[in-house]
């Protein structure tokens, strides 16, 4: 994906297979059943989230605060529902991201998240996206983080972190097979 911190989602079709970049200016892909492709998300602090259903639908989202504020989770579920998939059947797996203790944001960002996703001037990206997904039909128990403990990209040298000054990005995939 040529990610631009938007809420645009590309519905992948057969003609997209083999392209190096899936969709210019989108931050999410929805892969209908049967295409058997992999879609990657590049991150360094932003949340990557991968979607799976037993009915063959796969998806990948690049979810920083801008994309979440613009409703990327809601949009994903709307597209999926229009194709006959239910949010309650979907499993969401989040990748490593900046943790809420490290993610200080300004008042302009905070005012976009009036719910429980912010505490003081700290924003919890996973909570912000979880709230949005649940409001659109996903089940709380189906939204999972990478490990039991938050894997913070800003605190852990194993990861690239935009806040720590890295210009490199991590790449994670959803593979439909
Ligand atoms: Zn942290």
Please give a structural write-up:
The protein has 4 helices and 10 strands, in the order βββββααβαββαββ. It has 177 residues and is of the alpha+beta class. The chain is globular, with a radius of gyration of 15 Å. α2 packs parallel to α4 (125-135). The chain has a single domain (9-175), classed as CNF1/YfiH-like putative cysteine hydrolases, CATH 3.60.140.10. The mean pLDDT is 89. The protein is 18% helix and 23% strand. Residues 99, 101-102, 152, 154-155 line the site of zinc ion. Zinc ion (ZN) is lined by residues 99, 101-102, 152, 154-155.
Proportion in β-strands: 15-25%
Series of H and E elements: EEEEEHHEHEEHEE
What would the average pLDDT be, to the nearest integer? Answer: 89
CATH topology, which one? CNF1/YfiH-like putative cysteine hydrolases
Structural category is: alpha+beta
- Using the alpha-carbon principal axes, give the shape: globular
Descriptors:
about 20% helix; CNF1/YfiH-like putative cysteine hydrolases; alpha+beta; two-stranded antiparallel ribbon; globular; 6-stranded mixed β-sheet; 4 helices; about 25% strand; about 180 residues; binds zinc ion
């Amino acid at each position: 994906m040529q990610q631009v911190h938007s809420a645009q989602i590309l519905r992948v079709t057969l003609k997209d297979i083999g392209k190096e970049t899936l969709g210019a200016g989108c931050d999410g892909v929805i892969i209908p059943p049967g295409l058997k492709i992999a879609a990657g998300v590049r991150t360094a602090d932003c949340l990557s989230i991968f979607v799976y259903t037993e009915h063959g639908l796969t998806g990948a989202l690049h979810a920083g605060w801008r994309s979440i504020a613009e409703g990327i989770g809601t949009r994903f579920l709307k597209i999926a529902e229009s194709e006959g998939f239910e949010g309650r059947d979907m499993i969401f797996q989040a990748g490593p991201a900046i943790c809420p203790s490290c993610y200080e944001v300004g008042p302009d960002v905070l005012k976009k998240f009036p719910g429980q996703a912010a505490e003081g001037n700290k924003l919890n990206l996973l909570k912000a996206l979880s709230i949005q997904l649940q409001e659109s039909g996903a089940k709380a128990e189906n939204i999972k983080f990478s490990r039991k403990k938050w894997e913070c990209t800003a605190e852990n040298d194993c990861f690239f972190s935009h806040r720590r000054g890295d210009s490199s990005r991590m790449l994670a995939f959803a593979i439909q097979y």
